[in-house]
Amino acid sequence: MVRPPTARSTVPGAGRLGLVEPGAAADLRTLGWDTPDSVPVLWALSRAANPDLALKTLVRLHGELGSGWAELAVELRTNTSLRGRLFGVIGASSALADHIVAHPQTWQLLRQGSLPDAAQLRTTLLDAVGAVPETGPHAGPLVYRAALTAPAAIPPLRTAYRDQLLLVAALDLAATVENEPVLPYPVVGAHLSDLADAALTAALSVAIATASPKGPMPVALAVIAMGKCGGRELNYVSDVDVVFVAEPATPIAARIAGELMRVGSAAFFEVDAALRPEGKRGELVRTLDSHVAYYKRWAKTWEFQALLKARPMTGDLELGERYRAAVMPMVWTASERADFVPEVQTMRRRVEDNVPAELRDRELKLGHGSLRDVEFAVQLLQLVHGRADDALHVASTLDALAALAAGGYVGRDDAANLRASYEFLRLLEHRLQLQKLRRTHTLPAADDEEGLRWLARAAHMRPDGRNDALGVLLAEIKRNTHRIRRLHSKLFYRPLLESVARLDSDTLRLSPEAAIRQLAALGYVNPRNALNHLEALTGGVSRRGRIQALLLPTLLDYLGDTLDPDAGLLAYRRLSEAMANEDWFLRALRDEGAIAQRLMLLLGSSAYLPDLLINAPDVIRLLADGPDGPLLVASQPVDVARGIVSSSARYTDPKRAVAAARSLRRYELARIASADVLGLLDVRQVCRALSSVWAAVLGAALAAVIRGTEAERGGPAPARFAVIGMGRLGGHELGYGSDADVLFVCDPKPGADETDAVKWANTVAGRVQKLLGAPSTDPPLQVDAGLRPEGRNGPLVRTLAAYGAYYEQWAQPWETQALLRAHQMAGDEALGIDFLHLVDPVRYPADGVSPEAVREIRRIKARVDSERLPRGADPASHTKLGRGGLADVEWTVQLVQLRHAGQVPSLRNTSTLETLDSIEAAELLSAADVELLRDAWITATDARNALVLVRGKPTDQLPGPGRELAKVARVAGWPPGDAGEFLDHYRRVTRRARAVVERVFVGN
């Protein structure tokens, strides 16, 4: 603090006093403060948050007081306490400065060195409206009748309330100017709550006089404080949440309650009854029995959370206490509700989502590392453990935090640090609200240096030798929000870890029962198993166990944001055990926040990924961000395919070559699926990447087998050999659960015996199928040649000439249709292209498809729909065979191709989506119809892929409403809590596509 100069010093200039407004020197002369004996007053003025505002206010007050200024001037020179209070408040709050100028004699209130108690506050507010105790059967200690009715009562109430607000603000701000005691935040919050109680007691007296002017109080009416007022931790400017209970709940009771809200909102602060049963749509006033019936049958989890702070504040206190006694037991059993965890998670996300992204770093109340983070965490722990520990039955956030620490539910150091950060943010919130007496929680923008500097001074920030007051403020905001973010996860998980691993001998440990309760409340369906996993991860005295104990609070917090933390924790345990000898693994989780967060999201979302990541752990490194974005999507499909083929080509043994290809496939599947779950790839990119990997593995296996047979024969192969991709493989639209549909074609080399060549080719094809289909923990590699001529009854491999002869004479409509997706995939490229030229006249008939063939295609499609849809499957949500699903769209597109590709070359495409683009361009279907088909195909493919990622195995049926559907919806990219909308969207999209299918495929 700057030491004031002695009286012999020259009078400091305006600039040295922090005065920048023009005319400051003249204002000082007006006040008579341009003499040496005014120096102590001037230096005190310079320490106000805004010296210019303080000086201007004093000049205005000088004009209003007239001759009375002399008394105040003497006080300001001699009474440092009064000086600190006055300069502190008029330099920090323009609204309260205006109040002092409008009521000049109120400066004398600031002679008081202490806050009035609750009874004194009540007397002051009641006297403002001449209220006297009510008489009659419904009278009580806090039921009064005012001499004034609304609206005449509002001005005196507003003035009396503002006077009391001025006093507490002055005492709160005095330390910023003079060496006055700092008013602790809990004292300020409790006093403001007492003031609100007094204010609404006075408002109730006016409401009674207004709504019931004759006769005594006609009903018993209790006003229940909720929210911050209920917890006695109110802000300077805040809504006061209330609930009304009346016996009986008559229309006159509702009129009195409504009048109380109108008077209170006009004179003091916004009075909000939205926390009542059914919210703003519900009755304003209910009887006690009606409240209880609602909470027993209809209340949501958030309503019980709100009741944590319920407190009778005025009116019939005996009725209010009966209300509290009736509802609080239900509060302490709320965590046993089946939907407790999802409701709590949904509510928290809804709060976060309501904050605009550009304000999240400036929001003291709702942003990341904010006041709500602390309050939400504390209340959740109260709900979890309060049913077994009455010591947690407290309303104040800080009291609850202290009780949680005393009971061992929160680490003592963590609780102390969290309390300090919470009080710091509440201090900033109070200062921001005092400035203009407006309800705000938003810090000034980063480029508003003047606003930030004012806040620093108002919050009693002082230079620390390295930074000025502004620098200190910014550093403290960053430090405290970061600390809250860090402690938010530790608050839940550190005590759990203490219960299984002794980290601090001075820390109380959760009992096993408490640990299980806490894990259940955090979303674990099998909390006992989860506790065993934690014990296994942190057990022993090894360095890895200690590192795990330090990492797990953050990792478990990330897992808590997934829909299957049980599976995620088990997968993390398995992964950690598999990586026990890899030092980089835990180091990466510790040093790379993105890796840790993304890995937990993957493990808690997908049953498909854990085994892949255990067997291809290097993919975990790709979860980090590179200079150009996430490393997961840095690879291009063509480069990946080239790498698989070249890697396997190093080996002469086909088994080793295929093992190398499998290893790279495993790595690529883990990479693609991880990027998919994280929303880094769209459906088209996923399908193309999976198809490219499949083609490369086929090519690598085929090349390895051919090399092996040539070694066995002691000479070159007798024939060229090619693999033709069919179905989704041919269209480069494979999903995670798709088999590889293929045709094998050979062509004897000049001079080779055809019988020997075909026999050799069958050996090659059989070995490729056997090697790729060998049992493995990886997702299956099934090579299916069932679409060959004559189906499974036909030869596995045919020569090019045999294919030509068959298709020319014997091709069935279904075989012609299947050829629409034939594409050269592996082996001899020239032979593959020759095959495609051979079948082009078959699949793209110049005159279109015959009516008989169309009828046959429709007959087969109807048979597929009726026979292949699994028993019990819901056709409205079966992604492959359901109404408007993949089969519907693909058969419709293929029928258009059969009819028109002979005349429209752009339709000669194996991709469903690209063919749809060509159909639209050729105007064969309307743009609207094409869009409906395209949307359905993408939606169904996305859902089908999500099903495999979630379940870990191929499946086509979407589940009904429930936890699994929520997991599928989340992996498919839908926001949390929107699983029902995801299913509705799927059905809506496919239903519209089905209408197009019936018109195009069935109807003409």
Account of the protein in words:
- The protein is mainly alpha-helical and 1004 residues long.
- Among the domains are: 358-501, Up-down Bundle (Four Helix Bundle (Hemerythrin (Met), subunit A)), CATH 1.20.120; 523-604, no CATH class; 631-843, Beta Polymerase, domain 2; 851-1002, Four Helix Bundle (Hemerythrin (Met), subunit A).
- Helices cover 58% and strands 6% of the residues.
- The chain has 41 helices and 14 strands.
- Strands 3, 4, 5, 6 and 7 form a 5-stranded mixed β-sheet that branches.
- Strand 11, helix 32 and strand 12 (783-784) form a beta-alpha-beta unit.
- The protein is elongated.
- Residues 1-9 have low confidence and may be disordered.
Descriptive terms for the model:
1004 residues; mainly alpha; Four Helix Bundle (Hemerythrin (Met), subunit A); Beta Polymerase, domain 2; five-stranded mixed sheet; 41 helices; 58% helix; disordered N terminus
Distance between the termini: 90 Å
What is the global morphology?
elongated
- Going by helix content, strand content and strand pairing, the class is mainly alpha
Mind telling me which CATH architecture of the domain at 631-843 this is?
A: 2-Layer Sandwich
Rg over CA atoms, rounded to whole Å, is 38 Å
Mean pLDDT: 91
Strand content: 5-15%
> Any idea of the CATH topology of the domain at 631-843?
Beta Polymerase, domain 2
Q: Please give the CATH class of the domain at 631-843.
A: Alpha Beta
Could you state the CATH homologous superfamily of the domain at 631-843?
A: Beta Polymerase, domain 2
Q: Give a short account of the largest sheet.
A: 5 strands, mixed
Uncertain residue ranges:
1-9
Q: Quick one: how many beta strands?
A: 14
Helix content: 55-70%
Number of helices: 41
